[in-house]
Write a structure and sequence with these properties.
single chain; 441 residues; alpha/beta; 4-stranded antiparallel beta sheet; 14 strands
Length: 441
Amino acid sequence: MRKTYIILAGSAFFLLSACSSQESTAEENAEEVLQQLQEEEYQQITDQYFSAALQDAYPADELRLSWEANRGSTFEEINNLEATADDDETAVSGEVIFDDARMEVTMDWNEEEKLESLQIARPMEDLALPDDAVEEDITIEADDGYPLNGKLTLPDEEGGPYPAVVLVHGSGPNDMDETIFSYKPFQDIAYGLAEEGIAVLRYDKRTYTHGEKMVEELGAALTVKEETVDDAVEAARMLQADDRIQTDQVYINGHSLGGMLAPRIDDEADTAGMILLAGSPRSLWEILYNQQLDLASDNLSEEAREQLQEQADAFKELAESFQDMSPEEAMEYDIGGMSGYYLQEMDQYDVGQIALDSNKPLLILQGEADFQVTVENDFAAWEDIFANESQATLKTYPDLNHNFILSQGENKGTIAEYNIPGHVDEQVIKDISDWIHEQAE
């Protein structure tokens, strides 16, 4: 027994020594990479230090984009560089300090002293309410028993009346900031527009606050009307009745699913116009179908790709068949947590035609790096609808993702990139505010 203990202790000492050497080498390599980043030697870094897999996922141009987006003005020091060895990989983390910013860097080195992962990001910093702006708590209750917490952000306490927007969420349960991983796009928009003299109303989504109750009371009969439309209509009417707001200058600003539903909301609330952020005039099931096909990447085997194609085609066939069913029949199907009736009800409305027939001004914006709602399929559909119409202004943004935040990093093009802290691009907020002010002229 004693002999076994001595062998184990000796082995542990050997492993500890090996780890120390491994950690030291990884720290040295990490410091060299950071120095080369300062010197903008992006291609040299990818050629010398990136594994083959990381080179494919994170080419030199993307590395440059991430570094330039996060660095500050003047480099000061590399700080708190620490390595931790674990089996065949060593993780190194540290900070790069600039005169006006701090950047966090994390690296994973393999046994061949190649990088398997490199993450560059500024720490998440919550935006502060603009100096002159004020924010007040509000409650929206479109239906009895479903009160929702919200906030009204005003450019200042004494001024006005102001133009205003209602922010309408994308799919899924969302809080009033539309928080997703490291993002809070609705807070970004509210504070940014307030600085431009525009009031913003945002609120928790009904399924966020009352999800269990809605399932209990509505079950498979739940549709976007109860989930989203009714509350957005009530929010618009609240603004239209507020003396601090220009009642004829209230706009629906819908994101993703909210952008798809904005024409339906406007049809009831009779707002001044619509701002559609990554919305689509296509059916929701069509978007879901394309998203399934996008999973069939070249990294999968031919057999796996064929299986995904079969599953996607089966989903498409089922979704199309809902229109030939009664509501009760459609309710019998569960599609990823929503009933077939949810999709059936949405398909009763041609939102593109509703938007066109509204004769209201529309601002339609799309990130070119959006992999959920795409330029090729969805923005192009808006372009077709408004090809000969002047009521719509359409614009795309290179390198912005579904949340209108810079798409960057080795996980670009996946949900994982949303873990990199970021804020809605300033140009997007400026374009929204300029457009709103133009409508009021």
